[in-house]
Records
---
Amino acid sequence: MNEHFLRHESGRLVVRLTRFLGTHHLPLIEDVVQDTLLKAWEVWRFRGIPSNPSAWLLQVARNKALDALRRLKREQPLSSEHLERHATEECERDVSEYNEQQLLLADDVLRMMFVCCHPSLPQESQIALILKYLCGFSVQEIARAFLTTETNIEKRLYRARQIFRKQHIPFEVPIQHALLERFSQVLLAIYLLFNEGYKSNQPNEVIRQELMHEALRLGVLLAEQHQTRQPEVFALLALMCFQAARTHARLTETGALCLLPDQDRRLWNSPLIEIGKTYLNKAATGSHLSRYHLEAGISWEHTRASTYKETNWYKILQYYDALEAIAPSPTASLNRLIALSEVEGPHAALEAFNHLPRQDALSTHHLYFSIRAYLFSEAGERKNALLAWEQALKKAPSEAERLLIQHKINSLI
Amino acid sequence: MKDFIYLFRGGEADPENPDTAPSTEELLLWDQWMAPLLAEDRVMGGDPLVPTGRVIRGKNSVISDGPFTEGKEMVGGYFLFKAHDLKEAVALSKNCPILQTADGTVEIREVHQL
Amino acid sequence: MARLSPAELQEDMARWMTWTEALAQNGNLEDGQPLLAEGRVVGPTFERLKDGPYPDAGEIVSGYLMIRAAHLDHATELAKACPILHYETGSVEIREIIKLPNPSNA
């Protein structure tokens, strides 16, 4: 049994039951799924895992859902009777055709992704919903991933459920114009989820890899469905593959973060890179150049180069210029300066640095000072570099980054 | 038919001396209660338990001589048997001799079927 | 247990399966069953005391294993690895079974 089996099953069950019962019953659905998993725990720990664990879980969940509905009906006789009848029929019909069920499941997963990214829901809630309902994370696990409290996550989920209930958000993939709108939201959610896994905020390796894998898994699901098999999805998948491929090279033995210039590229995951290349090729269709195409392009240039210095910086700079036009962000602007430094020299980059728009986000982010320090280093301005590193040290969000910055400081002293 | 367990607690004739062997009368009462159950092929097993034992608790695995010293809380024995549902299982316990004592109780639990 | 995440439940299940498999392989395991959480407790006047299973002691029996061991100490030793002890509120009670002759012969 796959080590994430129950977590993934939890997601599958939520999605399936939401099709039966509708998004406004999500609280009930959550309880039913949790009860089902508890039952599995009670029985399987003594009797071992049944030969078809997914079917076992689905049957138990289905029965519990029907029981819960009947109880609800007794308590609230005025609630829509036809809905409960429809749900009962759906439940009963679904059990027989297992193969057809597999297709239905993929559809349901897709529906849930779009439901979680409904425009009525705030951005931060969307990822929390995806993690809870699709990926089977607990509230505690989600809170850890986002460096916030369980209470905050509970609140976000609660508000989301309220919105589902009040607006009777249908469990379906939108079509045409609405699909396009929502689709970019879904991609963004997956992208953000991946980034949460990728960037080191906490020395909690396990959770972070998990997030990257979940994002990849969801991306693959999107690529497999005809409604969402778009070049952008392949571009995002390529980006995630290339980035994830570097995982083993990104931490030193002492637990310090290791950046691109210093990474041992032999530790990069070649098979994953190959998969990324396939996705990149598939992304090269259509006329729309998305931010994911550009970011995948940047990542690919790094991936294909044998060393940091032999990287095609000119091309990377072009990608960043295009990215600034269609999807500006402080992080992209800062990273662009590194490329600029390689192409036009550190002084040009430092000059450009001074012209960066003054945003609060920029000046408090440690990246601002880290890159500044790096550029000073490249320009041979040791004293300025040290000052900047020290400011970066104060803002370092994780132990791994602290160690890295301390190392840089030590090598300058 | 489903599987059930009866857990017997309390009902000690002499709570101060839980080790005392059951009297002939007691055994007869139990026999009377069990006979129809046996005849219907419902009984799968069951035995009294030695009154003293051990309890291990929590993460630190603290071992203590156990179980709970208060007679009425201690499980004195168990039965495994078959019944159609919880209702029937409860009904079948009606003539259990332990219920004729001051503090005896029977806990009835169903064994997971799935 | 109700608050555990799917990942944590799976971890716990794996611990149980490891423990019971080891017991079985060493010939110590005779039987073991999980019990449904619902149940009844009946008392002396045959009044339903409560919808069980919570006895006065306040702890729920969630299952049982029948073990073959040399003596109480051995059985206790085997019980130390029980995964329920991973949780602060978990406990294992070890009791020796008095083997009586068939009741209808008593």
---
Amino acid sequence: MPDIHLTVNGVSREGRCEPRKLLVDFLRENLELTGTHVGCEHGICGACTVLVNGEAARSCLMLAVQADGAEITTVEGLMRDGKLHPLQEAFREHHALQCGFCTPGMLLTALDLLRTNPSPSEDEVREGISAVLCRCTGYHGIVKAVLSAAAPRSI
Amino acid sequence: MKPPKFDYHAPVTLDEAIALLTRYGGDAKLLAGGQSLMPLLNFRLARPAALIDLNRIKSLSYIREHDGQVRFGAMTRQRAIEFSPVVARRLPLLREATRWVGHLPIRSRGTIGGSIAHADPSAEYPAVLTALEGEVVARGPKGERTLPPRALFETYLTTTLAPDEILTEVRLPAMPDGAGWAFEEFARRQGDFAIVGVAAAVWRASGRPAVRLATAGAGGTPRRLRESEEIVEGDGLTDTAIEAAARRASELVEPDSDIHASADYRRHLAGVLTERALKRARDSARA
């Protein structure tokens, strides 16, 4: 079984698994980082979205061996010095979660959206978060939260 | 579910990858961005003896201008294409089509070569390749060959690539300065595969309009709409000519019915989207 060395949330980690192990299962089972959720396992629901070298990607559509040498950010890596990330604060403020299952994927997808487009329109936010399914139908709050965490739009 | 067992290889050179493909004699699958193959593995709809992962082959990832073309290494990510200044300047149609490919997290991994070699007829890149008269380079143990899209796409999810060949490069002619473009698509949800999509580009060549049109999702392969192009090239970019070209488009396509839409509905969409795409392409053209 191959050894995998990677950086997760700024910490150097390693593990060993079969080549067929998905990155999301490696994170959850080998590294015990269960914040990243497994949903559909075919890239539709977005619950497993993490940052791979700074870019949002489905961790159910990557093998753990492919992440050897990569830098991964999961929802556990968003807090700084015991304080929620501003995007997490915005989610709390705007009631952007109900059951919370999609929330880790929503947060990392929204983070990538705001890095590539710091002042998105409401339509752009809706398009961006369409990469993740929320079955509580809580999109309205999520859109408000992402917009409030974005840089102000210049008119 | 989880993927079945397979041998895993991650070669760092193309030659190694071709040698591995040859060794497995058709029982191996190439893993590019994984956005289509990984779901098939997770559902165990694909059970290859081996996966040959192309992601460690650095030489397959580039965007280069060359002799009036833009050349893409097969492993160039859709995300890199979306944000490439060269693509924005030379191939704005490809840039617009890229925004229709899945979602940003899908485009972070998905590749241009993977999308084309997978040959899903409702995918955007095969339609752009067809509209712009691009070509692909395939390499195997016996050397390299270049194929235009009509020689590449056979039918649903099927190309003429040999089991020991790798699609290594995609070449698209740069669009002329001032060209107009539009990629119109209808899907049930943002990020889904197209039910039907239409790629359009227009520019002036020797004082007359030049038109490029191709569909996605209206048949087993992307379809170039040459007869619709000719109507507009002959009569000019008037509303009347565009509407006639759109009617012809719905006759030219040969769609099938499936769970997503009937053949008749797809024909209708091909016409509607051709009209929208041509009008928007015309309006975005300069001079």
